[in-house]
Amino acid sequence: MALVVITGGARSGKSALAARLASERERPVVIAVAGRAEGDAEMAARIERHRAERSEAWTTLEVAGRPLGDWLQQVPADAVLVLDCLGTLVTDILWGDGVEALSEADADERVLVATEALLARAGDTIIVTNEVGMGIVPASASGRLFRDVLGRANARLAARADAAYLAVCGRYIDILAGPGYPVWPDNR
Hints:
Elements: E1 3-8, H1 14-24, E2 29-33, H2 41-53, E3 59-62, H3 68-72, E4 80-84, H4 86-95, H5 104-119, E5 125-130, H6 141-160, E6 163-168, E7 171-174
Parallel strand pairs: 1-5, 1-6, 2-3, 2-4, 4-5
Antiparallel strand pairs: 6-7
C-alpha cells in the first residue's frame, strides 16, 4: 500500500496529477468525489469536467454527506482510491450536518478520525487536498477554523505519506525531498 498526498492551490494541476498517477498503477480506480453537485451548478460542472477527463472504466463515488466509514468500505482493497478532495470532505465533516459552532478541538477530532480512517486503508490511496496556508487570513471565524484544521490534517497526512507533492502552475515539487527540520545555514 502506498499513500500519495497532492496539495496545491486552485487550478494548480492537483487532480490531473492524481489521475495520471492512478492510471499508472494498472489497477481498478475509484474516485471519491467530495463535492456536492446538487444545488450548485458550478460544482456540478466541475465534477462533470473531471469525470470527462478520466477513464470511463473508473468508478466514481459521490461521498458528500455520507459517513466516511460507509463509503470507504465500498472501495475494494486492490483498487487505487483517489480522494478529490480532502478540503471539500473536511467542509462536509465540519458543517455537513448543519452544525454551525464547533470548537477547534471538536473540529480537529472529527477530522483526525477521518484522516486516520484514510491512513488505515489497505490499498493504494491518493489524497488531493487544498494548500490553505498561503492565502489571506480568512475574515470569518469559520474560515479560520477550516484553514487551521485542514492545514493540520495536511501536515499529518504528509508526515505519513510515501510521496507528497505541491502542485504549482502545473508543475510538481516533491515536498518530502526537503528537510523535515531545516537547520541554520552555519550548521549545514
